[in-house]
Amino acid sequence: MKINKYLTGIITVNTYLVYDEDTKEGFIVDPGAYCPQLTKDVKDEGVDIKYIILTHGHGDHIGGVAEHLKDFPAAKVVAYEDEAEMLANPEFNLSKDCCRREISMSADIYVKDKETMKVGNMELTFIHTPGHTKGGMSIYTDGHLFSGDTLFCMSIGRTDFYGGDFREIINSIKDRLFVFPDDTVVLPGHMGPTTIGDEKRGNPFV
Predict the structure, then answer these.
(1) Is the pTM of this model over 0.85?
(2) Which of 77, 136, 173, 196 sits 20 to 30 Å CA-CA off 89?
(3) Is 108:126 a contact under the CB 8 Å cutoff?
(4) Cα–Cα distance between 27 and 49 in angstroms, integer?
């Protein structure tokens, strides 16, 4: 599994390109804005983008979806089933603030908690992690956890936006993410990577 990270959008979101080096099938996580370098790397490496996966519906994580779909028209957009409302409503997804334009969209595929999906030889598991938003989710595959805005390095996502709930995000982290092995690499939506073990030992919020 190959993982490339790109910083996108005015709020500097971590956008990830992930692909199976054997089959060249891959997916994109949270395109915060259109990223020409990501598209160039996909074409240079011959990657077949199967999915654009959204950890949640805030504008800073979805701002590049439409543009990247022009580059990869066969890709399907994936989100958690409880995030449909936020994706569709610019007032809820804050896209005007994050992207300087209103975005209303829907996913092609809405997944449920613990649902799995194959991309090449990779198996993805979707984990509902509400608290930052109602339908926030994390994605686990092969020792790596894409945590969106639920869990950061020594921090957590904000809960003062629409759909946020402090108690829920703490429960999501403790009950749904801290169950993974300590050496699981956490790849968040902002800031640098961390591990489950480091967060269990040192995150001051949990």
Answers:
(1) yes
(2) 173
(3) no
(4) 5
